[in-house]
Specification:
Blueprint lengths: L2 H34 L3 H5 L25 H9 L19 E6 L3 H12 L8 E6 L4 H8 L5 E6 L25 H4 L14 H19 L11 E5 L2 E3 L3 H15 L3 E5 L15 E5 L5 E3 L1 H8 L2 H6 L5 H9 L8 E4 L5 E3 L40 E3 L19 H10 L5
Parallel strand pairs: 1-2, 1-4, 2-3, 6-9, 7-11
Antiparallel strand pairs: 4-8, 5-10, 6-8, 7-9
Helix pairs in contact: 4-5, 7-12
Length: 420
């Protein structure tokens, strides 16, 4: 081979080596840049621990009125991550009751309910879904530590807590308190009492409605679930017998109480611990540990317009005052005569965020669990005692307000359309 050809080959090899070196250096620099510029959205997506390529993905329709930010978009993606602990609990027991725990931002409360769930008989047989109102790192870490069952996290991507400068969060042009929109040149529709929206308050109803639509119609794990789903909150202490009692109640409901739409772990009167009778109890539906099936959800979903336009920021009062009465017959729930769950929160939803300022007695919850409450204590042979007339919110109540802004009502209606 001539010396010229050898020289050209050496030059070509040298140029190729230089090119490869530059590509490698560029790649390393790019990785370092991406690493140093990590955003919240990339951090919260960093634990995608299992491929979702073979999993059915249900993309929600993006609600109108909203221009999603980076965090909102990333939460949408995170909601598609499969449950954790599949290696520990690869299969769910047949006819399991799914449990949904919806939480806000009270870490000390959440730790208590998680600890109580860890002692529930049968908890390893089912799926626990934790629905977060926005994204809070401390709340997220607590849930990531759960090892006693399959657990899936979902995050409300349209929570006011993740929109700092626009609706549904606080917009610079929003009217406040009792501002006159014309005089102040601000945006907003007051409620029936003349007050404008408070984002942290309306998030309560938004989260509950978004969660219901997502759990029943939007999640791969539950959109075809034909059984009951049990809903609990971050300030509900759950007794060890709760799951076994709920299994019994859901089985007995259609046989013992045809008028019962749901089953409950606790009396509707939150301070009550039950009557202690040797009988089942049928009463109005409570908001502590309630479960219903897809048939009932379809009835509720069909009343979206009424739910979304009722001027009360509380989802439960809205249900009692306008949705249930519209069914055309009394709505009862079936429960045992001893409670299997206790509401321990001493203050409102958006208080007690700090561990040092949580609204609890000396920062502790002292709930006595008797031996009878550690095992299923409902007997299939029991008859049903029904409370025919009960106090509480009824049809005709006009609501406590806080839900007058047209934008909140329209967003609520949009949530009902996400998966249909």
């Amino acid at each position: 081979m001539s010396s010229c050809k050898k020289g050209r080959m050496k030059d070509a090899v040298f140029r190729r080596l230089v090119s490869l070196s530059l590509i490698t250096v560029f790649g390393i620099v790019l990785i370092l840049i991406l690493f140093r510029s990590n955003t919240i959205s990339s951090l919260i997506s960093s634990d995608i621990y299992e491929s979702t390529e073979s999993i059915e993905i249900i993309e929600p329709k993006i609600p109108k009125l909203l221009l999603q930010n980076e965090l909102s978009l990333s939460l949408n993606k995170r909601n598609q991550i499969p449950p954790r602990n599949l290696d520990l609990y690869p299969k769910l027991v047949k006819d399991h009751v799914v449990i949904v725990l919806y939480v806000h931002n009270r870490p000390q409360y959440l730790q208590i309910v998680i600890d109580s769930l860890s002692r529930v008989e049968g908890i390893s047989e089912t799926l626990l879904i934790v629905s977060h109102d926005g994204y809070f790192e401390e709340m997220n870490k607590i849930v990531e530590g759960i090892k006693f069952c399959q657990v899936k996290q979902i995050f409300a991507p349209y929570s006011p807590h993740i929109f700092s400068n626009s609706f549904p969060g606080v917009s610079p042009r929003d009217c406040k308190d009792k501002d006159d929109p014309v005089e102040k040149q601000c945006e907003g529709t007051p409620d029936q009492y003349g007050n404008h929206r408070s984002p942290t308050i309306v998030s309560l109803k938004h989260h509950w409605w978004w969660m219901m639509n997502t759990v029943w119609d939007g999640l791969t794990e539950t959109r075809h679930h034909s059984g009951h789903i049990l809903f609990i909150e971050e300030d509900h202490f759950i007794y060890p017998n709760a799951y076994r009692n709920m299994q019994l109640l859901t089985e007995l409901k259609s046989k013992k109480c045809p008028d019962c739409y749901a089953a409950n772990l606790a009396p509707s009167e939150v301070k009550s611990r039950g009557e202690g009778w040797e009988s089942l109890v049928a009463e109005r539906m409570g908001n502590v540990g309630y479960a219903f099936n897809r048939t009932v959800w379809r009835k509720i979903h069909n009343k979206a317009a009424g739910f979304c336009t009722f001027d009360d920021y509380n989802w439960d009062i809205t249900m009692w005052s306008t949705v249930y009465p519209s069914f055309g017959s009394p709505v009862y729930t079936l429960r045992g005569s001893r409670t299997s769950a206790v509401h321990f929160g001493k203050c409102g939803l958006h208080q007690g965020h700090s561990r040092n300022l949580a609204c609890m007695d000396n920062g502790n919850v002292n709930i006595v669990v008797d031996e009878i409450d550690k095992v299923a204590n409902i007997k299939p042979e029991w008859e049903v005692r029904k409370y025919e007339h009960q106090a509480g919110y009824q049809a005709g109540f006009k609501g406590w307000g806080g839900w007058g802004d047209v934008r909140d009502r329209e967003l609520c209606v949009e949530f009902a359309k996400m998966y249909v």
